Amino acid sequence: MSTVKFDIKALTPFPKLETKRLYLRNLDLTDAPTVFKQRSDPRVLKYLDRAAITELKQAEEFITQKLDLWQNNKAISWAIDLKGTTDTAIGDMALWRIIESDHRAEIGYTLLPAFWGKGYMLEAARAIVDWGFTTLGLHSIIADINPENNASRKLLHKLGFQKEGYFRENYHFDGQYLDSEIYGLLERDFRATL
Q1: What is residue 42's DSSP assignment?
Q2: Could you tell me the pTM of the whole model?
Q3: CA distances from 158 to 79, 95, 121, 189 (A)
Q4: Rounded Cα distance, 123 and 118, in Å
Q5: Over the stretch 61-94, which tens digit does the pLDDT of each residue have?
Q6: Which among 98, 89, 83 has a CA at the least distance from the CA of 132?
Q7: Is the dihedral of CA 132, 94, 127, 73 positive or negative?
Q8: Do residues 149 and 110 lie in contact, with contact meaning Cβ atoms separated by under 8 Å?
Q9: Measuring CA to CA, how many Å separate 192 from each of 122, 172, 184, 185, 189?
């Protein structure tokens, strides 16, 4: 069991993280083209169960919401950059729905399809989950996925997440009720995967 106490102050200043191949930095308005590209791509939206972004202004509004959540200690969103490139971000990852009283947060992530299957999400997620447990002092992290999203399920299993629930038709999107699969991760289970 972790001896780290939960500390919401760990959200500021923004924690920049680094892995072997990635820089994880604060998501900002310059990332709007990447967010637009991701959230307008049918391949990304297939299991995201969110309406497509249809113009750059919507991407900017999405980022502004993320920044507001961070400033109010409700969430933190990282842009994922490849080391050694001057290109824009390839994706993003967040710890959101932070519940201070329970020392719990939810993880969410998206990645441009050109970078799928290369292990970038696992690399970024390990760094962010480790930061969440070690620095923020979380006790647990949850993930809510579309049950048909096998790639996301595999990622979660590699990190030590365990299936905690299956909710039938609990989410309404695009005129239909969808199921949700819920995964949870305790620090000790995460440490066992390292």
Answers
A1: H
A2: 0.94
A3: 22, 18, 11, 11
A4: 10
A5: 999 999 999 999 999 999 999 998 866 799 999 9
A6: 98
A7: negative
A8: no
A9: 15, 36, 14, 11, 5
Mean pLDDT value of segment 125-139: 97
CA distance 172 to 189: 32
168 Cβ contact partners less than 8 Å away, ≥ 6 residues apart: 179
| Sheet of strand 91-99, all strands in order from the earlier edge strand to the far edge | 17-18, 22-26, 76-82, 91-99, 104-111, 140-145, 176-186, 162-173
**Residue carrying structure tokens 């390292």:** 194
Tokens of 181: 């699969």
- Cα distance between residue 181 and residue 34, in whole Å: 27
| Residue 164 near residue 144, CB atoms below 8 Å | no
Alpha helices in the chain (DSSP H): 32-38, 42-45, 56-71, 120-131, 150-159, 187-191
CA torsion through residues 77, 82, 85, 91, sign: negative
DSSP classification of residue 55:
S
The Cα 190–Cα 187 span in angstroms is 5
With tokens 């780290």, the residue in question is 4
Residue 138 and residue 141: Cα distance in Å, rounded? 7
Is residue 24 within 8 A of residue 127, CB to CB? The reply is: yes
Q: Per residue in 108-124, pLDDT tens?
A: 999 999 999 999 999 99
